[in-house]
Structure of D,D-heptose 1,7-bisphosphate phosphatase:
Amino acid sequence: MKVAFLDRDGTINLDYPDMDWKNVENPILLDGAITGMKLLNNQGFEIIIVSNQYIIGEGVITFEQFNSFHNQLLEVLAINNIRVLDSFICPHSRTDNCECCKPKTGLILQAIEKYPHIDLSESIMCGDSVSDLKCAKTMGLKFYGIDFGENAIKDLSCLPTLVR
């Protein structure tokens, strides 16, 4: 199974400064997100969201706030006929030294444990931060950076033209 591992904030939806998240209620999708994710699905990619959410562990938002926002996002994607296989989230604070906070690979390893048919050689990762890039490199995934890196793309709609 080939997977597109996508970061969430700054890749699929608008990101905010950490402290502003406590007032964010509804997701605002970034330009190209819907188009790009649809085309990835149409090319046979399963989509898995992998996201650091240390603002939960650091008390900026609650799990309830996170779940409300994330479920709304998944609902918008479903309404647009985008299949998201799963989401793997790191809720720990940055000082917890957990194994799932990117750039560590725990979120990808959790996905592989749950879905053992994932073929990393056919899979990709896309995100907007160096931690996403480092995670992808460690796992041997082809990486596409939103506005940075050697495989920089403007937004997710640019991915399907690159991924064959």
About this structure: The mean pLDDT is 96. The beta strands are 3-6, 46-52, 84-90, 124-127, 142-146, 152-153. Residues 3-162 form a domain with the Rossmann fold fold (CATH 3.40.50.1000). Helices lie at 33-42, 54-57, 63-79, 106-114, 130-139, 159-162.
